[in-house]
Structure formats: C-alpha cells, structure tokens
Design a protein that fits this description.
The complex is a heterodimer.
Chain A: H1 3-29, H2 36-44, H3 58-67, H4 80-91, E1 101-105, H5 126-132, H6 148-152, E2 158-161, E3 166-169, H7 179-183, E4 189-193, E5 200-203, H8 211-217, H9 227-231, E6 237-240, E7 243-246, H10 257-260, E8 266-269, H11 288-302, H12 309-318
Helix pairs in contact in A: 2-3, 2-4
Chain B: E1 30-31, E2 37-41, E3 51-52, E4 59-60, E5 65-68, E6 77-78, E7 83-92, E8 98-106, H1 131-140, H2 153-157, E9 167-172, H3 181-188, H4 190-204, E10 208-214, H5 218-227, E11 234-239, H6 248-256, E12 271-275, H7 276-288, E13 294-300, E14 308-313, H8 318-324, E15 332-337, E16 344-345, E17 359-364, H9 365-368, H10 381-385, H11 392-400, H12 404-409, H13 420-424, H14 431-450
Parallel strand pairs in B: 1-14, 9-10, 9-12, 10-11, 13-17
Antiparallel strand pairs in B: 2-8, 3-5, 4-7, 5-6, 7-8, 13-14, 15-16, 15-17
The chains are: A alpha+beta, B alpha/beta.
Amino acid sequence: MSPTILFTVGTITILGFLAAAILYFIASKFKVYEDPKIDEVEASLPNTNCGGCGHPGCRAFAEACVKASDLSDLHCPVGGNDTMKKVASLLGMEVEERDPYVAVVRCSGSFEYRQKVNVYDGSPNCTIAHTLYGGDTGCQYGCLGFGECVDACDFQAMYMDEKTGLPVVIQDKCTACNACVKACPRNILELRPMGRKNRRIFVSCINQDKGGAAKKACEVACTGCSKCESECKYDAITIQNYLAYIDPEKCKLCRKCAPVCKSNSILEINFPPRKEESEKPEREKRERPERRAAETDTAVMEQEGEVNVIAMVQKANEESDNQGSSENKEIL
Amino acid sequence: MSLANTTIKTFPMGGVHPEENKITASIPIKKLAIPEEVIIPISQHIGAPAKPVVEQREKVKVGQVIARSEGFVSANIHATISGTVTKIDKVIDATGYKRDAIIIKAGKDGEEWDEQIDLSEVLVKTISLQREEIIKKIADAGIVGLGGATFPSHVKLSVPKGKKADCLIINGVECEPFLTSDHRLMLEKGEEIVVGTRILMIALGVEQAIIGIENNKPDAIEKMSSLIHGENGISVQPLKVQYPQGGEKQLIKAVLNREVPSGGLPIDVGVVVHNVGTAFAVYEAVQKNKPLIERVVTVTGKDVKEPANFWVRIGTPISELVEAAGGIPENTGKVISGGPMMGKALNTLEVPVSKGTSGILLVPNEEAKRGHMKVCIRCTRCVTVCPMGLEPYLLMTLTQKELFDRLEKEKALDCIECGSCSFTCPSDRPLLDYIRLGKRTVTSIIKARKN
C-alpha cells in the first residue's frame, strides 16, 4: 500500500473521530429535555392527526395532556373514553366519561323535496358556489351538494347519496372530529351527542326564511310554526329566525315534537317504529320511513360489502329497546 | 385651454381584447316607464347596509330618504317612486342571496317629487358651494361609484390626513364588451359631466382632471374634447382599447404612468378616480338637489330584439327592463347583471336594478355554457394577460392545496378579479373562482391575525 492511501485513510479516520466528538459534545450540551411521558401518551392515541381535539396533531395533544394539571378540558373524540382512560392512567390522573358525539346533516332537501330553479355550471366546489350565490334551488341555506364535507372526512365516514344529492354520515365510522363541520360553508353539519341507545332527534333544516318562503323552496323546510316548541315539555326547543332548534342537552328523546311537525322537518334516528296514533287520524303525513328505506338502497349500492345494512336497520327498528344498535348505520 | 391629447395611451402589462359587441352605441337612451312596484335593497354599496327609516304603509315621495347610512362607509337610500311602502322584506338581489329590501308600490303615477328637487332641464354651471358642503351633499344624495364597484363616493373624496390628491381621473373607459351606458351618457349629458367634474375637482382641491376614454368611442372623445374648450385644467385622454383599462389601477398607469403600490389605494399616488356616471350624479346632486334615484342601464345581447340603454329607476325589477327590450329571446342561457367579463349571472329576473347595475346582458345558450375544465398545460397565457403581474395558475393551485401563507406572499390580494385569466385559459380552468376563494380565506386569516 502506498503511503498516500495510508495518509488519506488516516486523515479521514481522525477527522471522523473529531467530528463525532464535536457532535457528541454539542448534542449533550444543547440537549432539549422532553418528558418521556409524551411519547407514551402519543403511542396510546389514535395518531390520525385529525385535529378534532383542537390541537395541531396527536403529538401536540399528547404534550398538552402531559402539561395539564387535570384532563377535564382535553378530549380525543376519535379515541373516545377508552383512549382517554388509557391516557389518564399513564399520567396518574382521573378522567370523566363523556358522551360520544356524531355529526348530523341538518338538511333534508333532497332532489324530491327541493326543486332546482336554475343551473349552476361553475366550479363544483361548495365554498365557491356559496360565495357566488344562493344555490341552484330556492333555498339559500341548504346543502349545495358538491361534497366538500365528504372530501374533508379522513375516516370515510361520509358519502354523497346520488339519489338525494345530500351527504350521509355513517354513524359507526364518524369520530366527531369536526372536520366536516368546519368544511361546510353553510354550517349545515352539526356535532350532536350520540344519544341514549344511539337515538337522536333533531331539526333537519337550517332555513331561516319566513314560513311561506321556506316552504315554497323546500317541502321539508322548517317554517318556524312553533308547534314543536309548545309541544315540548322540557323547554328543549327554541325558535329563532323562523327556525326551530332542539337543544340536545335538554332533550329527553320523548318524540312528542316529531308528529306535530307538519313539514316533517324533525328527524328521528334509530327509534323503534311509532305505534298507530288513533287520536289524530285526520292528519295527513307523508311517510318519512319510506324515504329512509329508499335511501338505504342507495347506501347498499354504493357501499358494497355492507349489504346487510337494510336488514340491520330493520332489525334495529323492529326489535325492542334493549337491542344494542352499535352496528346500526345512520341514514338521513 | 386644453384639447384632447393626440397620443393614444394604454397600460403596459397584460390585458385582453374581447370582441367589443357595442350593439347599443348608436341608440339614444330611452326612458323606462315608472314601474308599479320597486324593490329597493338597503345594501347597494360596499360597506355597512343602510338602516330603514320608513315604516310599513308609510307614504313616500320621490327622492325621500328611506334608509339612512350607518357609519362612514355607507350610503343613503332614497325612494325612487312615490307611493306607499308595502313591506320591508328579504328579497333576492344581484348577489344571489336574500337581503333586506324596501318595497314601494306606486301611488297614482308614482311621480310625486320631493319639493326641494329641481326638475328643470336648465344647465346650472355656477358652482356656489364650498368643499365641505359639496362632500356633504354627495353623501346625502347617496352617491356611490356607478362604474360597478359601488364604493361610496364621499369616502373617496374625503382625502385622509397626510395624503394629498393632485389629479382627478374621470373614467369614461367602459372597457367591458357590450356595455354602452357611459358612452351614451357622455354623448347626451356631456355638459353636465363637465360641470360634475368641476365640482369633484373643488371637492378634492385639485387643479387637474383627465377624462380617459377608449378610442372605440371616437364620437364621445370628440364631444368631450369640444366641451372642455375654455375649461382650465380638464383634458381628454384617448386610450387604446384594452380590457381591463377601466380598472382604477390600470387607468392611472395608462393616463399618468403612476403605479399604485401593492395593497395601496390610488390616493397613495395622489389620484382619485371617478366614473362619468358618478360625475353626472354629482352634478345632479349638487346643482339640482336630486339624489341618486335613477341610472342608465344597457340591456343588450346578440339575440335581443330591441337592445338599448334605458334611464331606469333604482329598484325596478330586471324583468321589466328585459320586457322593454323586446322580451327574453328563446335560446337565452344566462342573464348577466353587468358586463360579460365581470358581471354576475342572475338566478331570477325579479332581481331589482341597484346602484351598481350597469347593464343586463342576455347570453345565448351556446355561449353561456362554461367549458369543461381540463388540466393546466403550463402555457402561461394567464400570466401574460394578468394586468396586475400575478401568476393566476399558481394562485389557483395554492388555493386548491390550501397553502394560504404562500398565497398571501404571492400577492393574491392584489388581484382585481377582472377575469382575464379565466377568459384566456385554453383549458377552461376556473382560475378566478379559485383565486376569489383564496382571497377570501387570506383576508379572513389576516383579520384573525390582527385580532
């Protein structure tokens, strides 16, 4: 071996050790201490980085958990109570159980109920259409149908129903991460408590026009007639701007409001079928369940591999209250 | 004495030249019959909506204030026909949304005027009022920029402290294809426009005013040049036809070769721009006490039977205007309020004419459809035509990818929304739609940051 090679190898080896020494010195001198608990907490989180907790990603949430003195303000909606219990036990703290939430679509203006009055040929994007005008139907509050909420969903918990032109939330997949609520330029989606036995009841409309105008634009629009308000014993329903809103905190799921609604704006989800009402036979009421069944067909067509959904829905509807409906699917 | 400048100027960067189609240029302005009912939106301007000061069933006269401005950047709204206020209700306006509007049903003939308004046709040349009085009168008359932007005129005339205007530009460019309302107004009301210009010069305290007119209106250039004989400080500047020359920043660059800084206003370079329509409205307000209750609207389109310009009372439903022009042609695909470049498609003909309605354009079906969006082929035509020197393809991509910090750095807020990029794009990409969306988001981010 020539001395040149030896010299080169030697120099580089010395340089390498020198650099390693400098790096070691710098690394130990400027070491940033990070609580090892952060890593542990992060590992127990779902790591979806959806931002549903209000923090930019799971690591930031883990940091916040470790820093916090109690966990009452912190909640991971995706992981739910189980994850939060794990986090609490890692940190040696207590955590209260929270009711799970789910997104609901507060618009029932399907093609059938809400006639198109003009044609939109601009960019198929909800926010752009919303900036441009009131929409291609007479309702300037309702769903525009370009599915920005569906695009925003990281959990494949939503899809656009081609028959109705409305988005559908799949209850079991929805993690209540709030992404769809933020994406909708019209604030149609809302996070509501999953409810006892997954049952919920809400006004599926946000039209704030006066009764006549709302009705003209959409058959199932809330007219603000306040019949439901007077029917409710628990003061859960408020009327503002010709629009009813059911407060989920106060609502006891008694279902008294839904039958009095003349325009069928109040949706009941996962309830057993109603018994025949003999006292008020004169009321003509369009059958809501029929519509739901029809939409279920689409759901089956679109979601291959979940073909037993109809059966599940029917089963859940038929069987008594003690039947758990966690496998049920929300269909609006 | 100043005559028309012989050199023809234009702005140096970007621009397009769409087919002009000035069908109605040679037809005198007609007067539209007083409608039976007017729908007057309370928000016809940029800024805070006016507050209604009339009650239901109240009798009103033409020119009476029915909604008073709320705050400095706002404008009064006046009754445009006499009669009874039937209701104050939400009505779809040109924005495509339902907004509050005052609905007046005409009594008798609807022509009972407020006593203070001078209805004679006599030209009043002597300007007796002082600067503050003029600005107050303009504010009281509810005058807004009639070129289409509807920015309250008195705000533009109140030069902020520390800034000084040295030149007034009167915008007679009318670069939008099809529209001829400013053109006809210059031909028919030229004298009044010159007096209005003088009034605006006094209000601003400037010695120099330039009327910019594109040279596809040689008769208007000739007429205005002959009228400014003996008027000190006023001159006419012919301009090469180029869209969007009517944009303030482009016009200033073309006429004075001054460049408004990014994010700045024309006053930063000592200039204030007003439309010829505004100059005429100022004349009527100051010399005749007449508030802004009517304007010239072009009703046009390739298949329209009797296209023309009309003097229209504000609040007249657009359906009546279309009827006056021979009805809606069978193959109409879109009805646009404004010009084809910056106008907005209407979703119903019951929309009322507002202060900013410069034209109604009926587009045939085959031209109304947007092309199918294809991929960007990186031809850079949008960059070439952008009059603000922006990169529209990039702004669109950044909006799609939600990179709003970068969008702000790329000066998306400088976009004047002229639509040249979308017009020229061979792939029919909706560039402006996305840029507008990006601008909105960036504006709200900046607002949130400030708070």
